[in-house]
Amino acid sequence: MLQTMLRDYPRRLTLEVDPDADPIRGRVCEGDEMPEPFVGWLGMARALERTLSRRPDDGRSAEG
Questions:
Q1: How far is CA 51 from CA 22, 28, 38, 60, in A?
Q2: Domain extents in the chain
Q3: Which residues in the chain belong to E strands, given as ranges?
Q4: Can you give the pTM of this predicted structure?
Q5: Spatial separation of the C-alpha atoms in residues 8 and 16, rounded to whole Å
């Protein structure tokens, strides 16, 4: 995955967060792709990982 991230660098992501949620809640967006929702800090990290593992050109996972 790291090679994919470096090869496609830089990529612009948007982090949308509900400021009143406890635990933290929101979604990670990249362009017109389907957003990755998350709940909690570890969920946010996983949503970032899933978003970055997609190929920027077609939205599919770079791993498969």
A1: 23, 7, 12, 10
A2: 2-53
A3: 14-17, 25-29, 36-39
A4: 0.72
A5: 22
- Is residue 61 a contact partner of residue 53, using CB atoms and an 8 Å limit? yes
**Taking phi first (over 0 means left), then psi (-120 to 50 degrees means alpha), and beta for anything else, what does residue 32 get?**
alpha
| pLDDT tens string 5-63 | 456 578 899 999 999 999 999 999 999 999 999 999 999 999 999 999 987 665 555 55
If DSSP codes are grouped into helix, strand and coil, which group holds residue 5? helix
**pLDDT given for residue 9 in this prediction:** 72
Name residue 21's amino acid.
A
Q: What is the pLDDT of residue 1?
A: 52
Determine the 3-state secondary structure of 58 from DSSP.
Answer: coil
